[in-house]
């Protein structure tokens, strides 16, 4: 009996050790393997002995004496109790090993599911970030297009306003008017820069457009006591330069810097007449030796 008990305990320890190792290495398949080993062990030791001749065939030799048969009969229940206890321990070991394996498999499944969920959340977060980036780029592109459209509209409106202003300053003139304008600009601003020449032409045009002066260039220029080159006759002796022609043409096309000026003078050349400008007119600005008034 001691041999049988020792054998079962050894088997139990071996199977338990094997179950632990298998569960650590094989996870999902460990419980199946351990269960199969345990079932074989139980079947083998719960059969009619190792040799098939009785429960205790390998435990002790057969005693034929009649006197010992009763003792054997009395001992048989104790052997059955030991065998049942050992089998119960094996079953408990199987249950424990199976529970450990199932717990490990369950933990592994939970870990796998959580990992998958984390990966899905990370992928979803990446998609959302990409969507936001695309939306931001679309908004920036739309804002850029809108800014460009607004800029184009503003420039178009500015050009349109400038064209209207220029058109309003384009006066009707004859060839005589044109020649008179060239000579008076050359005489009054021949030594001035291009802007100075255009300013003198602008004052002549402003007078043509004003109700306070005649309606033609020739009449404005030759009005009494208005321009010194007319009074001293230098208007007839000047030689018109190419720059003066260009400046006059620009003024006739509507280029204007005069701020509505109707008068101009050279203070050094005007002498005592300069005081009349100061008393009766509004000073606007000065440029290249000339002062402009309204």
UniProtKB/TrEMBL annotation:
Keyword Membrane: yes
Annotated Cell wall hydrolase SleB domain residues: 195-292
Keywords, sorted A to Z: Coiled coil, Hydrolase, Membrane, Transmembrane, Transmembrane helix
GO molecular function: hydrolase activity
Superkingdom per UniProt: Bacteria
Region: Disordered, residue numbers: 65-84
Transmembrane segments: 29-50
Keyword Hydrolase: yes
Compositional bias segments (type: Acidic residues): 65-78
Coiled coil: 113-171
Name of the protein this chain belongs to: Cell Wall Hydrolase
């Amino acid at each position: 009996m001691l041999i049988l008990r020792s054998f079962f305990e050894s088997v139990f320890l071996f199977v338990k050790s094997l179950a632990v190792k298998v569960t650590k290495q094989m996870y999902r398949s460990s419980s199946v393997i351990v269960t199969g080993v345990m079932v074989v062990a139980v079947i083998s030791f719960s059969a009619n002995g190792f040799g098939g001749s009785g429960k205790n065939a390998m435990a002790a030799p057969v005693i034929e004496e009649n006197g010992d048969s009763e003792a054997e009969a009395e001992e048989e229940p104790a052997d059955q109790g030991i065998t049942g206890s050992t089998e119960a321990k094996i079953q408990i070991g199987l249950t424990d090993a199976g529970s450990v394996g199932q717990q490990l498999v369950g933990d592994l499944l939970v870990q796998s599911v959580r990992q998958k969920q984390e990966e899905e959340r990370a992928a979803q977060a990446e998609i959302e970030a990409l969507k936001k980036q695309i939306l931001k780029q679309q908004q920036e592109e739309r804002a850029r297009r809108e800014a460009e459209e607004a800029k184009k509209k503003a420039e178009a409106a500015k050009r349109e306003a400038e064209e209207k202003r220029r058109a309003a300053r384009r006066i009707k003139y004859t060839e005589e008017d044109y020649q008179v304008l060239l000579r008076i600009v050359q005489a009054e601003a021949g030594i001035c820069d291009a802007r100075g020449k255009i300013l003198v032409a602008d004052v002549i045009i402003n007078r043509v457009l004003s109700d306070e002066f005649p309606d033609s260039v020739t009449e404005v220029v030759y009005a009494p006591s208005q321009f010194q080159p007319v009074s001293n006759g230098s208007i007839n002796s000047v030689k018109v330069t190419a720059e003066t022609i260009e400046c006059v043409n620009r003024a006739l096309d509507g280029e204007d810097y005069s701020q509505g000026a109707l008068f101009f003078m050279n203070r050094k050349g005007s002498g005592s007449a300069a005081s009349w400008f100061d008393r009766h007119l509004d000073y606007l600005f000065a440029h290249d030796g000339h002062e402009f008034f309204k």
